[in-house]
C-alpha cells in the first residue's frame, strides 16, 4: 500500500507553514519544543514517529534536530513524554532547537509525522529509521518552519 500523503495532517499552534519559528523554540532562546497536533491517522497505525530535520545545514545529510518514536496512534496533540526520544545530530537525545550558522540565510525545518504499521524498535537515528521502516509507513505529513541567525 502506498503512503497516504493527503489525509494525515500535522499542524502547530506555535507556527504555520513556512513561518519563522519563534526564538523560544531555538537555541537562541529557550530551546523549547513547539507544540504539534496530528489528525487523520489511518486505520492500522501501530504508532507515530516524529522527525525534525534541517536539509539546509552545511553537512552532507543536513542536520536532524529531533527523533521521537513510540507515540500513540491517536488524533490530537503530540505529547513528547508519551514517546521515546532518539538521537539528534548534536550528539544528544531528544529535541535540540535550530541554531543555523550566522549569515547562512534562511533554514527550513521539516517537522515530519509518520504513521507506522509496526512499532519502531529502540531509538534509531533518522537515517536508520528511514532505511529500516520505509515499508511500514502508512502515511506521512510535514510542517515546515523557518529560522535564520
Q: What does this protein structure show overall?
A:
The chain has one helix and nine strands. Helices cover 5% and strands 34% of the residues. It is mostly beta strands and 149 residues long. It has a single domain, classed as PEBP-like (Phosphatidylethanolamine-binding Protein). The model has no long low-confidence stretch (mean pLDDT 95). The protein is globular. A hairpin with an 8-residue loop joins strand 4 and strand 5. The strands form two sheets. A six-stranded mixed β-sheet has the order 2-9-8-4-5-7, with no helix packed on it. Strands 1-3-6 form a three-stranded antiparallel β-sheet, with no helix packed on it.
Question: How would you summarize the topology of this molecule?
Answer:
Layout: E1 9-11, E2 19-20, E3 37-39, E4 47-54, E5 63-71, E6 76-77, E7 84-85, E8 107-116, H1 126-133, E9 137-147
Parallel strand pairs: 2-9
Antiparallel strand pairs: 1-3, 3-6, 4-5, 4-8, 5-7, 8-9
> What is the CATH architecture annotation?
Alpha-Beta Complex
Instruction: Give me the number of helical elements.
Output: 1
Mind telling me the CATH superfamily name?
PEBP-like
Major sheet summary line: 6 strands, mixed
CATH topology: Phosphatidylethanolamine-binding Protein
**Radius of gyration from the CA trace?**
15 Å
Q: Fraction of residues in helices?
A: under 10%
Q: What is the terminal-to-terminal distance?
A: 42 Å
> Mean of the pLDDT scores?
95
Number of strands: 9
